[in-house]
User: Fold these one by one.
Assistant:
Number 1:
Amino acid sequence: MNELKNKILSLKEERSALVLAHYYQNLDVQDIADHVGDSFALAKLAQKASQDTIILCGVRFMAESAKILNPAKTVYLPADEAGCPMADMITPEDVIELRRQYPEAAVVCYVNSSADVKAVSDICCTSSSAEKVVRALDQKQIIFVPDKNLGAYVAKQIPEKQFIFFEGFCPIHNSLTESDALAAKEQNPNALLLVHPECRGQVLSHADYIGSTAGILEYARRTEKKDIIIGTEMGVYEILKRELPDKNISIIREDFICTDMKKTSLEDVLACLEGRTEPITMDTELMDRARRSLERMVDVG
Ligand code: 13P
Ligand code: SF4
């Protein structure tokens, strides 16, 4: 394993490659990355990258966003089949139909979506920037796609705007029930529950903190409380378990895993560095249209 890691680290230098990894990636993949972050941080790092090559260890929409934001670079998604089931729930035609029904509304598109959907939206957002993005818009009516749970959470923070939702969701976060939240709290009544806004409203109502993966990590590191229940994918729990051995960190449900995020292996990363994988390619005109929405998101910050 160490031999493989060392090979990746030296090839990374040799090939001028930037390796970015999401917090849900396997820890061995996170360990060889130059940066580990949430979707927003990874998009910004990709946009500013000066290296020739970006290897994005995550799921397809993340690698596509990196390519769209920095099209001159060669961008790889190491596990070709790593997708996001939520992104596959909506088509551009769905957005166009919503626009027809609500012509005054702005379309806010969660980055967990295809480039085609981004191209027909007004602005993108991530879980850490969604509220800021919606507040920055002049329109009072907001079509929020595709995540109905994140949309409902944002709508609650901004009651002065009117929201139209699409029926999309993350199958992993949406599978958490109120009983899961209550059972985890019952097992450890002193613990703080930190939850991702892709969860259902009934789960969020029991949370002590709601935020993106980066927000959850930051909160867990900062709090003086020792007992913490992680209400997002296993990767975040694994990072904290390793980093904070003096705290009592648990996961809300033992099977809380995004299988797509776990598809990336060190061998896949090596294959990118050795040129044995095909880089991301997309239609130039599609990338230009999708870039507007992504750049607006980054500009709002
Ligand atoms: P973050 O932007 O919070 O990292 O979330 C990405 C994601 O896919 C959550 O399921
Ligand atoms: Fe998509 Fe959910 Fe996996 Fe995030 S956790 S990548 S939203 S399926």
Note: The mean pLDDT is 97.
Number 2:
Amino acid sequence: MAARAPTPAEIERASVLRRELAGHDYRYYVLDQPTVSDAEYDSLFRELEALEREHPGLVTADSPTQRVGGHARTEFAPVRHRVPMLSIRTETDTTIAGAQAFDVRIRRDLGLLDGAPAVEYIAELKFDGLAISLRYEAGRLAVAATRGDGEVGEDVTRNVRTIATIPHRLATRTPPPVIEVRGEVYMARADFDALNAEQDRQGEKRFINPRNTAAGAVRQLDPAITARRPLRFFAYGLGEFDGYTPPATQAGLLQELASWGIPVNEDWRVVHGPAALAEFYAAIEARRDALPFGIDGVVYKVNRLDLQDLLGFVTREPRWAVAHKFPAEEATTQVLAIEVQVGRTGAITPIARLAPVFVGGATITNATLHNEDEIRRKDIRTGDWVVVRRAGDVIPEVVRTVPERRPAGAKPFAMPARCPECGSAIVREEGEAVARCSGGLVCPAQRRQALLHFASRHAMDIDGLGDRLVEQLIAGGKVATVADLYRLTPEDLAALERMGEKSAANVVAAIGASRNTTLARFIFALGIRHVGEATARDLARHFGDLAPLQRATIDELLEVPDVGPVLAESIRDFFAEAHNREVIRGLLRAGVRWTPGTPSPRTAGALAGQTFVLTGTLPTLARDAAKALLEAAGATVAGSVSKKTTCVVAGADAGSKLERARALGIRVIDENGLRALLAGEGEHT
Ligand code: IVH
């Protein structure tokens, strides 16, 4: 099919993209102050590439697709790279397809037939820092240069000499007359955090991230400032060399560089074929957050240097290497609104509603803003473009705004005066970071949270009482306090939308079963501010029953291990509140009971996933009875001891099973131990 002429819209779009990308290149490479995330940049870049591929006539000589991003800063003397410092192609498909696509291209470019053996690759980390070329002449560091536009970089020798781990002299008696070592200058996470802690102490501005801080430090005009920044270096390749024969492979080269005292990261692996590359990718991604420095992916290279030469380069990239990136942990998006959420204790958390953005492997639409001070510190406003971050399973947060993109008229955030859920006043006490709704259990949001907490697994453990049901119960006026739960009938529940008769009966049964609980669980379930599970257990053990705890003075509370003044006051205030005492009376009237001192039986499923073995004769329990009790608690009872056994219950005349348990270091208990375990005393240890 003949190429279609570009439409005016496409011509316009290509020019807009070129201009935007050039601006981003300038802010990233020259100012070290990017205003968009890598992912956003990549997507613009790919859009332009696609347009140009479809309409080669749109390619201009100065298109960002035709060159490497940077320009040398004029304050530094220019250094011409005799072997250009290029970039590498980025594979953005973050699955095995990324590794496969690379392998397919390599096999095609090497002219390998289908049956030919797997290609040998080296997989390395992709360090997130600043590319540097170190020129050693007769073994001495002569010139250090940035990449610049790939052809001409900046002479940063004086700055780089201050980096402790870069040797001024190669540790070999026979250094090549000329060799350029290429690699990445970076800042370790711990060093970055320490640097920011120091900035805080000095009342100075915090640094944004390790990459920009490292890049900015190398490109300081005053080497004394560079010297104060804790920079490091990893080598990953060569530039020009003379009078030197490199090893046959990239792996051999890395080893040789390391032997000369040049820092080389050890997390590289030589592998064959695409599946092994993908395996490396997955293994590194799993360890990503635990690495002491930032990486944004891995790099695959053809290991043999002669094959690299054979493959050569396309315009700006070598054919023999590819960067396989991880899903971005940071992305840029817009704040659509700032709303507040009310927690169980009335704490108000401001939340940013975001234009949906894909970050760290998921699409996010909300990010926590923590509290009012935090919003003020970061000056986040509705309409702002912000960098959001999502690492692992943590709640996404806003890292910073992009001031250059703030819309005109954006107003600073103001904490609402009234709770959006109940209209009660929002108050913020002297010295507290958190504002609270003063509505207490009048506030449906607090009621909802209080009910969910009460029913949660480590509190009263009521199965089936989730978000939606609680919401419906409150909206329908069926429950106001936790005590009301015990008055619910299967009919009440079955009347709710999307609730079958059977599940209604199950929930009512689960509520009923929760009447028998432990004192520790009950205290925790009340949701007293600052009283977590551990404190609830301490209080249960110390006071033995609820009545003495309710009556306790501050001084008496302070006698409990780990209870300090804030906690003591919170407990006293809770029980001083008439409304709370009424709820407790309601629970007692509803038949909620705990056994003072000895906790009541564990709820079903408490031993789920655990395997027990019974052996010998127990003093009072028949074997079948012991088995039934264990199974009722969710445990599996097995006939023989293996490494998978959790615990062996041994009675009189126990034989080989007991011996084997001891040999394997498996826990052994007697009948009393079993009873204690079933009674939930395991929780009290
Ligand atoms: S090899 C011919 N290996 O990522 C270019 N680069 O866009 C060969 N980088 O400019 C580069 N870790 O600054 C290579 N293990 C690694 C790397 C790495 C980080 C940087 C490098 C390069 C950029 C690619």
Note: Residues 437-595 form a domain with the DNA polymerase; domain 1 fold (CATH 1.10.150.20).
